[in-house]
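Re: the 597-residue chain
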Amino acid sequence: MTDHTNADTLRTPIVAVLGHVDHGKTSLLDTIRGSAVSEGEAGAITQHIGATDIPLDTISGMAGELIDPTDFDLPGLLFIDTPGHHSFSTLRARGGALADIAVLVVDVNDGFQPQTEEAIDILRRTGTPFVVAANKADTTPGWNPQDGEPIQRSLEAQSERAESMLNENLYEIIGQLSDAGFSADLYWRVQDFQKNIGVVPLSALTGEGVPDLLTVLMGLSQRFMKEEMAIDVQGPGEGTVLEVKDERGFGSTIDTVVYDGVIRNGDTIVVGGQNEPIVTEVRALLRPRPLEEIRTEKKFEKVAEVGAAAGVKIAAPDLDQAMAGAPVRVVRDRPLEGVIEEVKAELAEIEVETAEDGVVVKADTLGSLEAMANALREAEVPILRAEVGDIAPRDIAVAETANQDEHKAILGFNVDLLANAETELENADMKLFTDEVIYQLIDDYETYVEERERAQQETVLDKVVRPSRFRILPDHTFRQNDPAVVGVEVISGTVQNNRNVGTFEGNEFERVGQLSGIQKQGDDVDEARAGERVSIAIDGPTVGRDIEEGDTLWTEVPEKHAKILEQELKEEITADEREALAAYLETKRKRDPFWGK
């Protein structure tokens, strides 16, 4: 038997579940909760605020022969109920992630998706150990479900074909992990979980493989986190705000995960606020009522104290400015100033660098604000102002002050538009982008900027003289002068009406006149493209004296236009226009190497 004398000082590891939108994070949490309830009857698992506590005995019952409870002195696992890396990055503790360990859920048929990559980035950045749950194994064609069984026992019941199809998908995921820089394998082949990521095939629907997932999570926590789980049980509580909520009868409350020490009713606490740290006194610590008492009117019961790790709702005055993701600290027998400084220091770690010009960013929590700022930095989008909270009229006013038009934008992650800002938005000279997926939000903004640039280039392109080279056809003089009318073939580029045209004598360009009309098969047209034969009217020259049949003529491109075409619009013009431009520039630069540069 393990010595359990110090068991009460080891806290429950905090587990976060993250992954792509519909890969099954929520259903996996529901399955784990559901199996835990049926395993230990309702009393065994305790619902916390924003978290579910599954004790070791219940886990051991669910995992069957996979777990010998005497091998463990950790009390169980605390699952954060709000799945997704949104909550994961919100949850900070002393500069790292609040979660001690994470489950990355990947749909076994779908592999890595953009949010999977995003989640992996966050895990890498915070250095959080994680396990991959390869979900939806039961959707493998020909799968024969073994409800709630460990995955290897379930695999024994499958046909060779089903097993090899599942393996193919699993190796695909292991390959994708390897591309992301993580060495991984099926969990029962992993010798050292510190060097390799374990992949657990499972089904949230049938419960197959869920025992394995719990076993791996317990094993990892026990082996690598025991030191971190050792806490001062009676010490001043520390936690992180999950959500700020108005509750009838209590006013503004904070749903908090406590990861160290204890919080007691009546304690003075310091909470990170939008402007300054908030100093207040705990009026009530609230927990959801046990499942069997759900019939009573009140949703919550009051408790006298809460020890780590736990989710609790704290009711206290002045919490309306509290921020999701911000630290919560109990003062107890310490100087208040010191605790305020600690909270300030922790908030300062999340300061977003802002620029003189850029976009306005609003996010629902500090963590997601930080994740947004990182993603925007990678996309090289500058930030003018970044704040936690819904979109208010002053955000619109600030966005309108941006110097560059494309920066007159608000990017809102998981936030609402306040009612009093709606009318302002209608009359404002700025764009609002909102989404609940960071990469989607940034994608939408980048697409908007690209479309703007394209539209601007199109207007520039409309005004720019396009290059062209064309040849006067033999026996196609219809009129000798005033204007000269001749048949031509366009060799490259675009001949446009009302442009000056001329010839190159050696490296000298000689203007011969201006086009005053283009006809194609008897109809007036504004331009003619490479390969077309048209008749053109030229004001100025006389055929036989200034120009001859068989001559090659060029559109005269002003130097400023040549520069724009070469430097900014090269990708926007056609290949044959590029060819005409290159030949024109080459001849011009024989005389003046810096022409059009």
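The radius of gyration is 35 Å.
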